[in-house]
Design brief:
Layout lengths: L2 E2 L2 E2 L1 H25 L5 H17 L6 H30 L5 H5 L2 H9 L8 H34 L5
Length: about 160
Amino acid sequence: MEEKQGVKIGMPIIGGLIAAILGGVVWAAVAAMTEYEVGLIAILAGVLCGYAVVLFSNKQIATVHKIIAVVFSLIGILLGKYLTVVYFTAQLYTDMSMMNLVFNGEMISAFAETFTEYFSEPIDLLFVVLAIVSAWQIPGRMAKTSMASEASTSDQAPRA
């Protein structure tokens, strides 16, 4: 899975995974501190995944990298929603710790069954779309910037 048509994807996948986990944890932490889900964190998850994929690919961007960034931004949003639900559930049931609930099979099943409820508001969908757009565009913009700078340095070869 390291290379697809000469394009390295192993490290960008690892970068996307790290960014998704970070974005999900930040989402849940902000929700826990404010007792409110801040939709802008979804965009942050998309931005983090886009940058992580670029950094872990050494700025050698292909369409597959943009797809990796989008997929992991969605995973980050999903993780953020899940951790937020776990946090508020742990607040209701004081006899269970949050860490026990995170890996609890019943909690995971309950989240999966009610999944659509967490994305039922139009504003939720708007922030998910904005995260997707951010995750898609950042690698492309950074690739154009790096390609443009490489082209300008190669044009400035010494002349005789």
